[in-house]
């Protein structure tokens, strides 16, 4: 997955404002951008189903490190590569394995509180018997997203 964060960084590095920003403990702007890209891609791989609008999140995180004139291009680059990363992830998950090569299992617990072992659907990570949980999770995510906005 890091090839996606590195690709974003490589495309954007020349536009990053030189130096470091106040309150970062001397971390250079370039390093801050690289870390934010890596963090986003890492979380996408690990926590995709509860990561609401990852491209938008990353754009907000790194926007302060770019001059106004470079921000439109930065947004395009981020959206492009996060969409590619998501496509890659979808393809990988449709094979029935996670990024580490482990077989996928449903995200739900059974009535006996053990993890459900059935094969999940790619778009939400729940098996057909637990789709109602996916709907509830969506509702919660939307509610928390609208509170945050
Ligand atoms: Zn299940």
Description of the molecule:
It is built from five helices and no strands. The chain is an all-alpha fold and 149 residues long. The model has no long low-confidence stretch (mean pLDDT 91). Residues 106, 108, 116, 118, 126-127, 129-130 line the site of zinc ion (ZN).
Weakly predicted, low-confidence segments: none
Provide the helix percentage.
40-55%
Number of strands: 0
Q: Quick check: average pLDDT?
A: 91
Query: What spatial form do the alpha-carbon principal axes imply?
Result: elongated
Q: Quote the distance from N terminus to C terminus.
A: 28 Å
The run of helices and strands is HHHHH
Helices, by number, come to 5
Cα Rg: 18 Å
Task: List the ions, cofactors and other small molecules found in this model.
Answer: zinc ion
Number of domains: 2
Structural class per helix/strand content? mainly alpha
Largest sheet: none
Strand content: under 5%
Question: Outline of this structure?
Answer:
The mean pLDDT is 91. It is elongated, with a radius of gyration of 18 Å.
Features:
binds zinc ion; mainly alpha; 149 residues; 54% helix; 2 domains
Question: What's the SSE blueprint?
Answer:
Blueprint: H1 2-12, H2 29-47, H3 54-62, H4 71-94, H5 131-148
This protein binds zinc ion.
């Amino acid at each position: 997955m890091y090839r996606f964060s590195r690709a974003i960084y490589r495309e954007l590095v020349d536009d990053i404002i030189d130096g470091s920003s106040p309150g970062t403990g001397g971390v250079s702007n370039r390093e801050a951008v690289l870390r934010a890209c890596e963090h986003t891609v890492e979380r996408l791989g690990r926590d995709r189903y509860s990561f609401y609008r990852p491209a938008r999140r990353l754009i907000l995180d790194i926007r302060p490190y770019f001059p106004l004139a470079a921000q439109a291009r930065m947004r395009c680059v981020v959206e492009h590569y996060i969409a590619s990363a998501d496509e890659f992830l979808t393809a990988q998950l449709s094979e029935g394995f996670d990024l580490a090569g482990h077989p996928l299992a449903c995200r739900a617990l059974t009535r006996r509180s053990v993890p459900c072992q059935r094969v999940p659907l790619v778009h939400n990570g729940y098996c057909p018997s637990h789709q109602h949980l996916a709907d509830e999770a969506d509702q919660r995510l939307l509610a928390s997203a609208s509170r945050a906005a």
